[in-house]
Amino acid sequence: MSGKPRLTYVNGRGRMECIRWLLAAAGVEFDEIFLERREEYEKLIKDGSLLFQQLPLVEIDGMKMVQSRAILSYIAATHNLYGKDLKERARIDMYVEGIADLMQMILMFPFSPPEAKEKNLDSLKERATNRYFPVFEKVLKEHGQDFLVGNKFSWADVALIEAILAVEEKIPAVLSAFPQLQAFKKRISNVPTIKKFLQPGSPRKPPPDERYIETVMRVFKL
């Protein structure tokens, strides 16, 4: 294996989207393989490509990597998006883990039964506005810098802009009480690699639709 990283997943956001975001932020082009059938997934397991029988799978630098956190950490460290020392790395980890908790709610939302969607949307709004976004509003206000950690673009900034945009898709006015995050969104959206990823035709996936949900259910037998 050599050349561009190769990503294997279904054709949609899911647990691969944060990996696409980070590779794009690092300016790394990648190829993708999209699974459509359960048999394709089972073949990967049979071939030994999936260490824990789980996707996403990223083939990069001669490795077949699974487990999202390990993949993301490797990409961040390889492309100088992981802080300058252990203290900065620890802070990035804290921010990324917090954002991951919020993103888990967004990840599962499309699979909510119809009768639970309104309740789950209210819960997402409450968590975003009362638990998660206030943390980052305070961080940005207190240190007065353009980025979350070390005044340098990092994995934490990538994770946060992804989360902001994902929440805004469901709750458009969610940043109304957060001026620091509004400015952050504008600033990070204009980082050249991020700006490119936000343009039509990029590898960024659209919000989950019925076809995506059906494919996930078919491939993973959920």
From TrEMBL:
What EC number(s) has UniProt assigned to this enzyme?
Answer: 2.5.1.18
InterPro entries given in the database record = Glutathione-S-Trfase_C-like, Glutathione-S-Trfase_C_sf, Glutathione_S-Trfase, Glutathione_S-Trfase_N, GST_alpha, GST_C, GST_superfamily, Thioredoxin-like_sf
Molecular function (GO) terms for this protein are: glutathione transferase activity
List, in alphabetical order, the GO biological process terms annotated in this UniProt record: glutathione metabolic process
| Domain GST N-terminal: start-end pairs | 3-83
Q: Does the keyword Cell cycle apply?
A: no
Identify the keywords attached in UniProt to this record, alphabetized: Transferase
One Pfam family cited in the UniProt record for this chain: GST_C_3
All copies of the GST C-terminal domain together span 85-209
Residue ranges of the TM segments: none
Q: Does the keyword Cell wall biogenesis/degradation apply?
A: no
What the record says about family reads:
Belongs to the GST superfamily. Alpha family.
Q: Which PANTHER family match?
A: GLUTATHIONE S-TRANSFERASE, GLUTATHIONE TRANSFERASE
| Protein name, entry field | glutathione transferase
User: What organism is the protein native to?
Assistant: Turnix velox
